[in-house]
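Limitations
The C-alpha cells in this dataset are predictions for the assembled complex, not deposited experimental models. Users should treat interface geometry with appropriate caution, especially where small molecules or nucleic acid strands are included. An illustrative entry is reproduced here so readers can see what is and is not provided.
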Amino acid sequence: GAVVSQHPSWVICKSGTSVKIECRSLDFQATTMFWYRQFPKQSLMLMATSNEGSKATYEQGVEKDKFLINHASLTLSTLTVTSAHPEDSSFYICSALNRNEGLAGGRTDTQYFGPGTRLTVL
Amino acid sequence: TQLLEQSPQFLSIQEGENLTVYCNSSSVFSSLQWYRQEPGEGPVLLVTVVTGGEVKKLKRLTFQFGDARKDSSLHITAAQPGDTGLYLCAGVRSGTYKYIFGTGTRLKVLA
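Predicted assembly:
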C-alpha cells in the first residue's frame, strides 16, 4: 500500500518559536497533500490543502500566516507553525492524495495518512 | 457544520460480540472511505466504497454503501480486542477530493 511518513513524530518547543513538520509520500507522487489537526478524542479537522507548485488553500478560520505550507516537490509538503503558543499544541496529521483510475474510467482518489506529529508548546 | 454523523459515538463490548457502526449524511458522496485510528497514530485505510449498494468484506468486517450514496455502515462480526480503536468514515463529494470526516466512533473490545 501507499506509504506516507511524517517527521518529527513528536516535538516540544518553547512559546514563540517556530516548528516545521515534514510530510513525505514514499512510494507515489502526490500533487495534492492535506494537513489536518486533531484534538484529543475528536475527529480530524482539515486545515489546508497543499498543492505542488502553487499556494495552499486554507480552510475557513485557519490563519495563513500562522500555519505556513510549502509543497516544493511531488513527494514533500511542509507545515511550519510560526510563533507557536500553547494553544497550538495538538496532533497534526498529513495525508497525500493517490489518484487512481477506477473501473470504466472513473476515479477513486484515496488519501493515505502519515503517522502524525504531536506538538507540545510550553 | 459536521456533515457526516457517526453513531454510536462510543461503544464498549465484550470479545465475540457483533456490532454495527453507522455513518449518515444528507449529502451525496462519490466515494466513502473507512479508516481505523489507534492512539498516537495516523488513520489507516480499511476500505473505499464507490457504488451505491456496494458491499465489501474485509475478514470479519463488512462495509456497505447506501443505495443513494448518502450513508454507510460498518459491521464487525465476533469482535476481538485488536479491533479496539477510533473508526472514522470520510466522504468525498463529486468534483472535489477533499474529505469530509465523520464524527468518529470509539470502540473498545474487552477480553
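Some entries come with short summary sentences. For this one: The mean pLDDT of chain B is 94.
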